[in-house]
Design a protein that fits this description.
It contains seven helices and four strands. It is mostly helical. It has a two-stranded antiparallel ribbon with strand order 1-2. It has a two-stranded antiparallel ribbon with strand order 3-4. This is FYR C-terminal domain-containing protein. InterPro entries: FYrich_C.
Amino acid sequence: MVTIENCPGEVFINVSPTKCWSMVREWLNMEIRKELSMGRANLPTLQPPGPVDGLEMFGLLSPVIIQAIEVQECRIEIGSAEYWRSRPRVVAGDGGSRHMLPPQGTPHIALLRGLFQRASRDELRALRSLLTSNSSLDESSRQQAAQVLDDEIAKQWS
């Protein structure tokens, strides 16, 4: 059984999960056609028939979900730098479709981006200062900053 989050009255039941999702796809295409006939623009493209991609079907290719999974993986220290470099990236394409990009960069950049998005303006400025003005930091200050970071990491693990 499958229900649609924003339309709880729409229920799709079949013994086959694939058939359930085909029924959802048919319903979605019908809704898109209905909206198109009323002149609404910027709608997703019609979903093609064929086998359902399980990862996509459950939203697991969403960049937000991928990022959350990678954060959890990093927290439990699954990956080495080699593991992270091998991870494909998922991006939204035209019409909201998602596709995999070849691996590139480090996962730390994505994790840092998430951290930066939660930081205050003052925190961001302090970090930028630490990163860009190495000459103004003596070894003791660098070690102190690293120790504060290590302490915070340890708190989150206990």
